[in-house]
């Protein structure tokens, strides 16, 4: 299996080449082109099974209920083009089985067949972050595709790292995290527009996005004319 990231900046996409017998899966609706020898199926199941229940849990993590799966129908490799809904970069994360990755809602784009998808409850503290209560938990050995709104920046946390919750893409489960206010008090954080931050502790990689989808949506929503009844 080969994955090539195409384009730069806000218009990145991924081209996946699968050999006969291989399978790749993606968020439903991410495919924008494919060769004629690619069979496309829609399912709620991943390598670890789960079916309907896992689909519901993915929805709680702000991801798709359904997954699209791709296989080659003959002895020739098939190609699939995937792109995220929001404009931004796409990155491949290599998993060697030694650690799991937790993806923030909407950042999962696709994965190879040997990776298992599940959800991890981040506790009711997630209610105060303005984000999903669940993370998408990715484990196993294989390739994970994540997408971002804007540019993806990778940090290696060795001690402590602070990330705004709206800019989080994914992180390794070797890291512990807690939610906290950005300013000196919750009131200062609210009026400063900084909101809630995540404090990571330990050693591991963290991927963040340069733009906050929720913040952009709030600005654009205020500019739209009121709905006519």
Structural write-up:
- This protein is mostly beta strands and 229 residues long.
- The protein has a single domain, classed as Double-stranded beta-helix (4-Layer Sandwich), CATH 3.60.160.10.
- Helices cover 12% and strands 48% of the residues.
- The chain contains three helices and 16 strands.
- The protein has helices at 51-60, 186-192, 213-223; strands at residues 2-6, 13-18, 23-27, 31-34, 38-43, 67-72, 78-82, 90-96, 101-103, 108-112, 115-121, 134-147, 152-164, 168-172, 176-181, 196-209.
- Strands 3, 5, 6, 8, 9, 10, 11, 12, 13, 14, 15 and 16 form a twelve-stranded antiparallel sheet that branches. It has a four-stranded antiparallel sheet with strand order 1-2-7-4, with no helix packed on it.
- A hairpin with a 6-residue loop joins strand 1 and strand 2 (13-18).
- The radius of gyration is 18 Å and the shape is globular.
- Residues 55-63 have low confidence and may be disordered.
């Amino acid at each position: 299996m080969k994955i090539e990231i195409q384009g730069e900046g806000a218009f990145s996409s991924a081209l996946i080449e699968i050999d006969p017998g291989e399978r790749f899966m993606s968020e439903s609706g991410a495919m924008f082109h494919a060769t004629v020898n690619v069979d496309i199926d829609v399912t709620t199941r991943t390598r670890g099974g789960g079916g309907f229940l896992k689909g519901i849990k993915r929805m709680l993590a702000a991801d798709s209920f359904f997954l699209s799966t791709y296989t080659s129908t003959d002895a020739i490799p098939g190609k699939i083009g995937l792109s995220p809904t929001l404009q931004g970069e796409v990155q491949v994360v290599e998993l060697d089985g030694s650690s799991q990755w937790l993806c923030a809602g909407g950042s999962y784009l696709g994965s190879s067949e040997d990776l298992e998808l599940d959800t991890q409850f981040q506790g009711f503290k997630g209610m105060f972050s303005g984000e999903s209560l669940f993370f998408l938990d990715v484990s196993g050995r294989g390739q994970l595709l994540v997408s971002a709104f804007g540019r993806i920046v990778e940090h290696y946390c060795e001690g402590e790292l602070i990330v705004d919750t709206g800019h989080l893409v994914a992180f390794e489960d070797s890291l512990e995290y807690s939610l906290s206010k950005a300013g000196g008090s919750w009131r200062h954080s609210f009026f400063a527009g900084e909101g809630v931050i995540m404090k990571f502790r330990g050693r591991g990689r963290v991927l963040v996005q340069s733009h906050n989808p929720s913040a952009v949506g709030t600005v654009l929503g205020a500019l739209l004319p009121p709905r006519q009844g």
